[in-house]
Write a structure and sequence with these properties.
Elements (H helix, E strand, L loop, with lengths): L5 E8 L4 H14 L3 E8 L7 E9 L20 E4 L2 H6 L9 E5 L18 H5 L6 E4 L1 H9 L5 H12 L10
Parallel strand pairs: 1-4, 4-5, 5-6
Antiparallel strand pairs: 1-3, 2-3
Helix pairs in contact: 4-5
Length: 174
């Protein structure tokens, strides 16, 4: 690992545990000797409102950590961690052709309004338009079986991300 920073975006909707996952990631990075800066953005004050977290992780070998901002510049994202598929598609402009997509099976259909049916297709059909490396799984089911609750899906996805990017980090425990 010779990169000076890893840029990650977690995106989903309220109630999926993004805030808790970011807190756990910070604690985990500190215990492993990494630096981590992040910002969580909540689009709605209720369950199912848009939530995203911009995260920059700095490996131990990084000489100087620039803590200016956690903001991710469009086209520079290393990994897009998608807890809700429509929210993930909204964040494609931050990605480049090698951005890793980790995609949970969860879909809140249609986004923000269960009554509307004017969308062209399911979001899973849109992901096939991108040639980026993709890991798709039912992370809520994995979290339920491994950690006892589906709210830990983001932690399971981060653990898969560590493996996929060959980051020398132990798995995060709940």
């Amino acid at each position: 690992m010779d990169k000076t920073s890893i840029q990650i975006l977690l995106c989903g909707v309220g109630g999926q545990g993004i805030n808790g996952a970011v807190r756990s990631l910070h604690e985990h990075c500190l215990s492993e000797g990494w630096h981590c800066v992040s910002a969580v953005y909540k689009g709605g004050a209720q369950r199912l409102g848009s939530v995203k977290a911009e995260i920059r992780m700095f490996p131990p070998h990084t000489q100087q950590v620039e803590l200016k901002s956690s903001q991710i510049i469009p086209g520079s994202l290393d990994a897009l961690v998608v807890l809700e598929q429509w929210e993930g598609l909204r964040n494609i402009p931050l990605c480049h052709e090698q951005t890793l997509f980790l995609i949970d099976a969860f879909v809140e259909f249609p986004p923000g309004n269960r009554q509307a049916n004017s969308l062209e297709s399911e979001p899973i059909n849109h992901w096939s338009n991108y040639n980026n490396p993709q890991i798709r799984n039912n992370y809520q089911a994995i979290a339920l079986s491994q950690m006892g609750h589906k709210k830990y899906a983001a932690l399971c996805m981060l653990n898969d991300l560590f493996v996929a990017l060959a980051l020398p980090l132990k798995p995060i425990k709940k």
